[in-house]
């Protein structure tokens, strides 16, 4: 999830930094009730992804193999990844999240929706791909990313953000984002033959609605959509990394 805003005259509040504005126009932070809700939400999500991480490790140690680990974390993965839909609603109501700018809402929504789509409309719906190693690839990438991300938000809301978590938030994505996207695309690609053979979610003419839908073609279009959108997410985070971490280093030097 990409966030925006920074600068030498701005303080990092965990969601990105806010541009220097006159006092009367400066955006206020969330109130006590909103802060409590956001902290609880982020703590629960952090704990949920930790459960998934522990489940993966335990399954690996029990099996002695990284193959077919999806089944060991299937239920919590579906629950907590679907729970991220609440996040889209929060980001469309920016008054509760200072530092979020409208341009990040679209990118955040795409990332959340694409993961929920992959969880339910691909991995859940096409059983044959659940044994693919590509599933483990994106699950591991999501898990590490989300543990770091929700921890980042939790500590930021509490105004006690350790530098290590900030560094991890703005550094590990360099590897985790390409890793996750590769797993997602490979999984969709592996699902294509089974979707075409079964006609999953497809609607053929003639019918009383005079409407047709080819899920196979739709999945191909989804894969193509990664071409313009993923670079935006990736380079936006690289841009944020330079601003946020350089701002932190400048702040340390000034102390």
TrEMBL record:
The chain crosses the membrane at residues 34-61, 170-195, 215-235. Catalyzes the third of the four reactions of the long-chain fatty acids elongation cycle. This endoplasmic reticulum-bound enzymatic process, allows the addition of two carbons to the chain of long- and very long-chain fatty acids/VLCFAs per cycle. This enzyme catalyzes the dehydration of the 3-hydroxyacyl-CoA intermediate into trans-2,3-enoyl-CoA, within each cycle of fatty acid elongation. Thereby, it participates to the production of VLCFAs of different chain lengths that are involved in multiple biological processes as precursors of membrane lipids and lipid mediators. Residues 1-29 are annotated as: Disordered. This is Very-long-chain (3R)-3-hydroxyacyl-CoA dehydratase. Pathway: Lipid metabolism; fatty acid biosynthesis. Coiled coil: none annotated. Signal peptide: none annotated. It is found in: Endoplasmic reticulum membrane; Membrane. One of its GO terms (molecular function) is very-long-chain (3R)-3-hydroxyacyl-CoA dehydratase activity. GO terms for biological process: fatty acid elongation; sphingolipid biosynthetic process; very long-chain fatty acid biosynthetic process. Belongs to the very long-chain fatty acids dehydratase HACD family. The keyword Endoplasmic reticulum applies. Pfam families: PTPLA. The keyword Transmembrane helix applies. It comes from the Eukaryota. Its EC number is 4.2.1.134. Residues 1-11 have a biased composition (Polar residues). It is a multi-pass membrane protein. Keywords: Endoplasmic reticulum, Fatty acid biosynthesis, Fatty acid metabolism, Lipid biosynthesis, Lipid metabolism, Lyase, Membrane, Transmembrane, Transmembrane helix. One of its GO terms (cellular component) is endoplasmic reticulum membrane. It catalyses: (3R)-hydroxyhexadecanoyl-CoA = (2E)-hexadecenoyl-CoA + H2O; a very-long-chain (3R)-3-hydroxyacyl-CoA = a very-long-chain (2E)-enoyl-CoA + H2O.
């Amino acid at each position: 999830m990409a966030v925006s805003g920074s600068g030498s005259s701005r303080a990092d509040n965990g969601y990105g930094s806010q541009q220097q504005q006159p006092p009367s126009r400066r955006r206020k932070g969330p109130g006590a009730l909103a802060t409590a809700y956001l902290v609880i939400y982020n703590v629960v999500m952090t704990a949920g992804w930790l459960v998934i991480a522990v489940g993966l490790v335990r399954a690996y140690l029990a099996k002695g193999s990284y193959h077919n680990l999806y089944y060991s974390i299937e239920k919590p993965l579906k629950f907590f990844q679907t729970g991220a839909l609440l996040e889209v609603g929060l980001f469309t109501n920016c008054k509760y999240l200072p530092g979020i700018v409208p341009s990040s809402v679209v990118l955040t929504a795409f990332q959340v929706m694409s993961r929920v789509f992959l969880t339910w409309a691909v991995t859940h719906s096409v059983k044959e791909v659940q044994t693919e190693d590509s599933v483990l690839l994106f699950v591991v990438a999501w898990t590490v990313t989300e543990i770091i991300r929700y921890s980042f938000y939790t500590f930021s809301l509490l105004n006690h953000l350790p530098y290590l978590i900030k560094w991890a938030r703005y550094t590990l994505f360099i590897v985790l984002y390409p890793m996750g996207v590769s797993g997602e695309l490979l999984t969709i690609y592996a699902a294509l033959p089974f979707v075409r053979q079964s006609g999953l979610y497809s609607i053929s003419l003639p019918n009383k609605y005079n409407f047709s839908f080819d899920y196979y073609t739709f999945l191909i279009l989804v894969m193509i959509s990664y071409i313009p959108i993923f670079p935006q997410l990736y380079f936006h985070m690289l841009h944020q990394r330079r601003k946020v971490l350089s701002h932190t280093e400048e702040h340390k030097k000034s102390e």
